[in-house]
């Protein structure tokens, strides 16, 4: 017998009781109509008083037809009337018990009528209307007591069907048999009770049944209720996260992950987390600008800020790289997956302390040179620019720009001043070198050898006695040829060292034919290079 059948029985019983009350009321009215006037003393006869002593007055208060129907069927006004009976502790009645009660009631009434009929037939014909009235009143009271007992039984049975235990048991029975629609019907009623909001296991079953019947929003709300009661319940937490994932509720899943951060249940949500972006450059101090690249898991977009605000999907979308050129910059970045789940915010701080270029180095350094000598800057970077003056004044970006060399084309004394400016517009300190420019002349081979020997002695290579330092041995210069090496025409000379009859070569040198400058020469024939010595 299903729940619908139960309520049909209740309605039929209510209608039967209603008819019964009406019939007994009519009988009483008929009895009263035979007596034009009955005094209060007659009504309170000894027989009526005896009958009333055995009846609980609270249980026999008059019930009109609307009240009977509302008690039996749960209609309007039933709630207030039921409270009177629900205070009494009575055993729960099964459906079979109620059917038996109804049959017993019907049979009892028939027996009562039969007894009254026999009593009437056996009584002397002179029975007074007063006696008839007493008999009718007592009969009505007995019927009313039985009627109230049945009504209470109906109310209790109806309340049982609305109880937590009844709906929980029925709901779980249907859930376990995979009848999810029926499970929702009963479990939702159990959930509506105060006990239902304390049973997380039952709430998880109801949420699953809601989800399987396409009621996802209700499933989510039930799981929220479960976590409101038991925040760290891992079964409810996992179920809610999975529902958010399946329904692409990225914002809600992000909020859930952040809400459980730092709790002992945080690891339950690990599978749903998005990894934070990582940088190509370790945060710290730099002396030059950097190109920062950010990386995240496949399928994720990156959003970032550099103004200190928290990044969202409305922030700058990362693409390519982030150029950091100066000062201290804090990059905050978040990765967002395809359904909108946000990672934790990653934060990277970079301090760019730009470094000025080193002071330029000139070659040759301060010296006497001939007309046409070219002064070059060593180690100038491609992204650096040099500027110079020839009168000793401090150069700036408005001075002559260096390009390939500074050529001294006239005789005289010069102070060459040079600065280097890098790509960040930072300037080096000034380098100054003094030059005496004389007319170009040609030196003979003998003059060149004398100039070279003097330079070897000045540099501590050969002693004043002509011996090589260190190691001893007699130094001797051997002219090889006149050739152009590194763009300078020079005498190419070999230095030999004699120890007795043995000879060793100590190195190769050059002396400019026109400028008288000394050079060290390295390399082999056909690939020689010269550096000022």
Computed structural class:
alpha+beta
As residue ranges, the low-confidence spans are 1-8, 35-95, 152-159
Please report the distance between the alpha carbons of the first and last residues.
118 Å
- What is the count of structural domains? 5
User: Overall 3D geometry?
Assistant: rod-shaped
Instruction: Return Rg in Å.
Output: 58 Å
Widest sheet, order of strands: 2-9-8-5-6
- Number of helices in the DSSP assignment: 14
Description of the molecule:
With 533 residues, the protein is of the alpha+beta class. Helices cover 40% and strands 24% of the residues. It is built from 14 helices and 22 strands. The strands form six sheets. It has a five-stranded mixed beta sheet, with no helix packed on it. A five-stranded mixed beta sheet has the order 11-17-16-13-14, with no helix packed on it.
Core attributes:
533 residues; alpha+beta; Serine Threonine Protein Phosphatase 5, Tetratricopeptide repeat; Immunoglobulin-like; 5 domains; 22 strands; rod-shaped; disordered N terminus
Gist of the model:
This protein has 533 residues and is of the alpha+beta class. It is 40% helix and 24% strand.
Strand-helix topology:
Layout: H1 3-33, H2 40-43, H3 46-53, H4 65-73, H5 78-86, H6 95-122, H7 129-161, H8 164-176, H9 180-191, H10 200-212, H11 216-229, H12 234-246, H13 250-259, E1 278-279, E2 284-286, E3 290-292, E4 294-295, E5 301-305, E6 316-317, E7 322-324, E8 327-336, E9 346-352, E10 361-363, E11 367-370, E12 373-378, E13 385-389, E14 400-401, E15 406-408, E16 412-421, E17 431-438, H14 445-458, E18 474-485, E19 488-499, E20 502-512, E21 518-524, E22 527-532
Parallel strand pairs: 2-9, 11-17
Antiparallel strand pairs: 1-4, 3-7, 5-6, 5-8, 8-9, 10-12, 12-15, 13-14, 13-16, 16-17, 18-19, 19-20, 20-21, 21-22
Helix pairs in contact: 1-4, 1-7, 3-7, 4-5, 4-7, 6-7, 8-9, 9-10, 10-11, 11-12
């Amino acid at each position: 017998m299903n729940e619908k059948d139960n309520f049909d029985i209740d309605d039929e019983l209510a209608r039967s009781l209603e008819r019964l009350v009406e019939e007994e009321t009519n009988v009483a009215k008929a009895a009263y109509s035979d007596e034009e006037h009955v005094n209060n003393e007659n009504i309170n006869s000894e027989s009526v008083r005896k009958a009333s002593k055995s009846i609980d007055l609270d249980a026999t208060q008059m019930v009109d037809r609307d009240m009977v129907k509302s008690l039996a069927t749960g209609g309007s006004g039933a709630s207030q009337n039921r409270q009177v009976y629900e205070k009494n502790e009575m055993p729960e009645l099964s459906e079979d018990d109620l059917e038996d009660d109804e049959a017993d009631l019907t049979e009892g009434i028939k027996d009562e009528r039969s007894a009254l009929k026999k009593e009437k037939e056996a009584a002397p014909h002179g029975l007074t209307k007063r006696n008839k009235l007493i008999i009718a009143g007592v009969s009505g009271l007995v019927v009313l007591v039985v009627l109230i007992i049945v009504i209470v039984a109906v109310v209790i049975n109806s309340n049982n069907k609305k109880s937590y235990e009844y709906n929980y048991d029925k709901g779980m029975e249907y859930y376990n048999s995979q009848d999810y629609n029926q499970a929702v019907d009963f479990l939702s009623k159990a959930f509506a009770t105060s006990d239902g909001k304390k049973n997380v296991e039952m709430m998880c079953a109801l949420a699953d049944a809601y989800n399987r019947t396409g009621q996802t929003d209700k499933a989510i709300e039930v799981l929220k209720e479960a976590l409101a009661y038991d925040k760290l319940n891992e079964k409810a937490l996992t179920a809610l996260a999975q529902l958010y994932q399946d329904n692409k509720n990225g914002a809600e899943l992000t909020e859930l992950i952040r809400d459980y951060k730092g709790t002992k249940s945080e690891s339950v949500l690990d599978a749903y987390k998005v990894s934070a972006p990582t940088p190509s450059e370790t945060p710290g101090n730099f002396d030059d600008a950097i190109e920062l690249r950010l990386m995240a898991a496949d399928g994720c977009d990156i959003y970032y800020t550099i103004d200190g605000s928290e990044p969202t999907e409305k922030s700058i979308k990362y693409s390519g790289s982030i150029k950091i050129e100066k000062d201290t910059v804090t990059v905050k970045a978040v990765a967002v997956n395809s359904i909108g789940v946000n990672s934790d915010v990653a934060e990277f701080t970079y301090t760019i302390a730009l470094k000025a270029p080193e002071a330029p180095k000139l070659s040759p350094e301060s010296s006497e040179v001939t007309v046409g000598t070219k002064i070059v800057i060593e180690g100038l970077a491609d992204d650096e620019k040099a500027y110079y003056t020839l009168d000793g004044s401090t150069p700036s970006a408005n001075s002559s720009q260096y390009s390939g060399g500074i050529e001294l084309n006239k005789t005289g004394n010069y102070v060459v001043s040079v600065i280097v400016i890098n790509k960040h517009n930072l300037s080096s300190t000034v380098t100054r070198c003094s030059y005496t420019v004389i007319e170009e002349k040609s030196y003979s081979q003998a003059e060149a050898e004398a100039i070279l020997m003097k330079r070897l002695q000045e540099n501590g290579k050969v002693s004043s006695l002509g011996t090589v330092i260190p190691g001893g041995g007699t130094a001797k210069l051997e002219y090889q040829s006149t050739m152009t090496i590194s763009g300078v025409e020079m005498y190419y000379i070999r230095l030999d060292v004699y120890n007795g009859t043995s000879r060793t070569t100590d190195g190769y040198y050059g002396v400019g034919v026109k400028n008288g400058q000394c050079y060290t020469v390295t390399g082999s024939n056909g690939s020689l290079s010269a550096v000022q010595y």
